[in-house]
Amino acid sequence: MPGRLKKFDEFFQRKAAEGGNVVAMARMGSAMRERGELAEAESWFRKAAMGGDRVSMTSLAHLLAERGAQEEAERWYHEAALAGEPHGMLNLARAYERQGKRDEAQHWYGEAARTGDLPSIAALGHLLREQGRGEEAESWLRQAAEAGTTSAMIDLGIVLRDRGQAAEAARWWRSAAQAGDLAATCQLGRQAERLGRPGDAESWYRQGATGGNSEAIVRLGLLLHRRGDLEEAESWYLDAAERGDPAAMTNLGVLARNRGDEGEAAAWYRKAAEHGSVPALTNLGHLAEHREDFAEAEEWFRRAARTGDVQGMLSLARMLRSRGAAHEAEQWLARAETVQDDREHHV
Hints:
The protein is mainly alpha-helical. It has a domain at 24-118: Tetratricopeptide repeat domain (Serine Threonine Protein Phosphatase 5, Tetratricopeptide repeat). Helices cover 81% and strands 0% of the residues. The longest helix is centred in the C-terminal third of the chain and has 19 residues, at 326-344. The N and C termini lie far apart (66 Å).
C-alpha cells in the first residue's frame, strides 16, 4: 500500500508541476535528483528557479556545477544570493574566493553568516584568519566552533596559538580530533614538535595517518625521515604520493637522490612539479646543475623563482652571477630579500 500511495503522490505532484505550481516543480526536481534522473531534475529545478523559487536556484546551480557548466552555475548562485538564499550566497562566495576576489567573497560569506548559516560562519572566519585579521575572525570562528563545526575549531585554535594561548588552542584541536576531523592531529603534532616532544608528535601524526589524512601521512614520513627511519618514511611517502600529494612525491625524490639514484629522483621531482610542488622545480634545477646542464638548471630555477620561491630566486641569482649576468642576479636577490622580509612581518 505505501508504494501505491507514493505512486499516486508522484502522479498528482507531476500534474501540479505541469500545471505551473512552483512548489511542485521544486519537489519534482528533488525527487528526480534522488532517483538519479539528473537531466529531468535539472529541467524541473530550472522551471522552478525561473518561477522565483530561490532554493531551486541553488539546486539548479549545484547540478550545473556537477556537470561542468561552471559559468552558468555561478549565474544561478548569484541569482539565489540576491534572493537571500544562504547556500547560494555561500557557493557564490566560494566561487569568488577561487577566483581570488576576496572582497566579494567576504561580502557574500558575511551576508550568509548573518542568516546563521554555520558553514558560512566558519568560512568567513577562515577567510578573515587567512588575511591576518585574527580578532575579527575569532568571534565568527568561536560561534561556529561552539556549535560543533570542526573546521572552525581548527581555525580558532590557530588564531589562539598565534596569540600565545597554546593551551586553549590545543583544547580546541583535541575537540576537533575527537569529533573525527583528522586535520586537527596535524596541528597537535606540530605543536608537540615545537615544544620538543617528538614522541607526542609521532603519536598524533600516526593517528591522522592511519585514518588517511594526507598531511598527517607526510608529516609522519618527515618525522621518521629526520630520525633516520628511512624505510618506514618511504612507505608513508608512497601512501601519500598515491593519493596525489606533491610534497610526498618531492620527498620520495629526496630519498632516491640520497641513495644515489638520480634517475628515480628526477622522475619523482617531475611528477611532484606536475602536481604543483615548487621545491620540486628547484630540486630539478640542482639535478641538472650536478650533471653540468646549466641551461636546463637555470630554466628550472627560473620557473621556481617566478612562483615567489626564495630558494628558487637565490639559486637562479647564483647561476646568473656565474655566467656574468650580475644585474639580473641582483634583481632576483632583492626580490628574495623582500619576500623574506614580508614573511618575517607575518609570523
